[in-house]
Amino acid sequence: MTTNELLGKPVWQMTGEELLFLAQHGNMSARGEVAKVSSSKEEKRYVYGLAGIARLFGCSLPTANRIKQSGKINRAITQVGRKIIVDADLALELAGRKMGGRG
Q: Can you give 11-55 as a three-state secondary structure string?
């Protein structure tokens, strides 16, 4: 059997020998594919809730609430009910831009 045939076979149908063969030789081809996928697609980083915003900006919970309420990072926030999901990279980028206000 070739490696591709073994990769298509369910684990519960493999013999111990086949499983060991895949463990030793199957990882080499899979690592190359994983590296290609991760380099071509950027991974989004998310933080959750006001506590996540506070950790992201290194501030207190009341300050994180003020940042959220200010509207500066609205494009980075998705909120459904009480659940708050923030795209961390976009939030940092938006907060870094000057949007008027004090000097």
A: HHHCCHHHHHHHHHHHHHHHHHHHHHHHHHCCCCCEEEHHHHHHH
